[in-house]
Each structure stands twice: as structure tokens, then as C-alpha cells.
Amino acid sequence: MWPAVRAAVGDPKRRLLLAFDLDGTLAPIVSRPESASVGKATLQLLARAASLPGVSVVVLSARSLRDLKRLVPGTHVAKIAQYGLEGPLAPAAGTRRRIRKAVRAMTARLRPAVEPFRGAWIEPKGLSVAVHHRALSPRRRAALRRRLHVEERAAEALGFGTQLGDRVNDFVPIGYHKGRALDALRARFHPGGTIFFGDSAGDEPAFAALAPTDISVRVGPGPTAARYRVRGPHDVTRFVRALVAERTQGPSSRRR
């Protein structure tokens, strides 16, 4: 993909918004979310990219803000957590209080559906709730997802929709998704171009929100509306390294 986007990212006069999902994109997928980590080289490159003139770097994740601060420390990279429910795009305090109450009710509703599936577990995140099923066999995972599909009608009554991650179902307040968050980020930063990397169905709304001149990248396999695809987090790091070199060296340096 690099030759196709080099001109766009290399122009120092063009403001860039560089946005990433976290799990499966910046950090390899692991069996338990608390075991995830972003490599030191990747963190250093993100910081360097964020320090470049005209480049804004954002992590846009389903994770809680506490997790994002732990996994991507420092203030150089903006952190948009729980599909925009936490961080600089968060709704008003009164709205958050109502959502937290609904999350408690949603969590209680999900427990009887999930408990029979040993290895699956519920993660209440305050403003959303996730059901993780990575440890299940394909057959048991399919059975759980059918059960969760039945719960979706009750979820809608409580004000929640479903966002699908990599072997996780996120129950998120209706109207909050990565496409909405990315639109808000572009309104805030006014970039001349946006680049977004994501690895799951939950990232598809962000791909759909991009303009034809923007760059959308699916990380790993799966159906997607993204224009480009890379194999995994290692390739995402390679891209950031190339972008930093391109913006740092400039056209005249490259010709030499």
C-alpha cells in the first residue's frame, strides 16, 4: 500500500489525522485483555509521529480509558475510549450517569446467558459491557453468539446496540460507534487527510465514515470496506516508521 499513499503522507503542508484501533492493530491479540501490550518500538514511533508538524495521532478503541492510559502512556497520543464515551469526546456527566445505570442493568441481563458457557466472561467497562468468548471452541462460540443475538432485543430496550470485535461482543449505547467518533475527531482536528487502521467488524463504521481521498486499512483477514489490507500489527508499525521517515526527510532528502 505504501506507494499508493506516499504522496499524501509525505506532503508536509497537508495536515494528517492518524488513527488506530488498539487490539489486533497496535497490539497483538492475546487470550486475556489484561495481557495485551504495545511494543516499545511502536510506542516510540507513535510519539515521534505525534511530534511531527501537522500530524495528530489518536488511538480509538473499545477499551476503557484506564486501559488506554496503561497501554499507551503519555500525552502525545490522544485517547478515545469506549467508542468515544470516554476521553475528549465523552458525553455530558448527566448522560454518563444514565449510561452507567443502564450498563449495570445490561450486565445483570447478560449473566444468565453467558454463565452456561465456561470460558466466556463478561467485562463491565462502566459505559459499555463486553462478552468475551475467545476461549470457546468454534461450536460453543457460535452457540453463545446465537444466545446473545436473542438478547439483542432486550439490549435495544435498555438503549444498547452490539459492536463486534475479534471474538468479543460489545454492548454499547445506541448511536456510539467508531464512525461517529472519527467524524468528531475530524471536526476537531480539520485534517487534510485521515488514515485509519482497524482489525474487526467494530472498525467498519470508521472505514465507512472516511472520504474517498482518505486511507482505510484493515489489519488481518475478514470482509471489509477498507481500501487496503495489511497482515498484522507488525505491518502497522512498519507503516508508522515509513510515515515518520517520509515526513522527516522530505522530498529533497529522498532524492539525495
Chart the SSEs and their pairings.
Blueprint: H1 2-10, E1 16-20, H2 40-51, E2 55-60, H3 65-71, E3 78-80, H4 93-114, E4 121-124, E5 129-132, H5 138-157, E6 160-165, E7 168-173, H6 178-189, E8 193-198, H7 204-209, E9 215-219, E10 228-230, H8 233-255
Parallel strand pairs: 1-2, 1-8, 2-3, 8-9, 9-10
Antiparallel strand pairs: 4-5, 5-7, 6-7
Structure in words:
With 256 residues, this protein is α/β, with parallel strands linked by helices. The protein has two domains: 16-26 and 40-85 and 176-255, 3-Layer(aba) Sandwich (Rossmann fold), CATH 3.40.50; 93-173, 2-Layer Sandwich (Alpha-Beta Plaits). The chain has helices at residues 2-10, 40-51, 65-71, 93-114, 138-157, 178-189, 204-209, 233-255, and strands at 16-20, 55-60, 78-80, 121-124, 129-132, 160-165, 168-173, 193-198, 215-219, 228-230. A six-stranded parallel β-sheet has the order 3-2-1-8-9-10, with helices on both faces. The protein has a four-stranded antiparallel β-sheet with strand order 4-5-7-6, with helices on one face. Strand 1, helix 2 (40-51) and strand 2 (55-60) form a beta-alpha-beta unit. The relative contact order is 0.17.
